[in-house]
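Per-record layout

source: Paraburkholderia caffeinitolerans
name: SnoaL-like domain-containing protein
length: 121
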Amino acid sequence: MSERIHELLYRNLQEVFGEGDAKRRRAAIEALYTEDCVIHTPAGSFVGHDALDQFAGELRATHPHFAYTPHSKAQALASAGRLAWGSGPRGGAPEYTGVDVVTVRDGKIEALYVFLDSTPT
C-alpha cells in the first residue's frame, strides 16, 4: 500500500495540479481520485471530480509557467501519506511551498488536505 500512496502523491502533484492540459488533468483525476473525493485547501473545500477539476484548472491558470517540485520523499503510514512540495517558475526558486496529506481508499485518493507554508504571489 505504501508504494501506491507514494505514487498517488507524486502523480497528483504533477498530473493534477501541475498539468495545464485539461483533458490530461481530467484523466489523471479519474485515475487517482475516488468519485466522492474531498479536497480541503485554504481556499475552501471541494467535493468530487468536477469540483477538483475546476479548482485545479483555475489554480493552474493563475500560474501556468510554474512547476511543482517535491521537497522531500513521500511518506506513507497505514492508508495515509504526505509530501512536501514547492511551486515556482521552472528552474527557479519556489514562490510558495506546502504539504499535501492524503487518505487513500481502494487505491485512490479519497481526501486531500493541502497545507500552505506560504501563499502564492
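summary: The chain is about 35% helix and 40% strand. Residues 2-116 form a domain with the Nuclear Transport Factor 2; Chain: A, fold (CATH 3.10.450.50).
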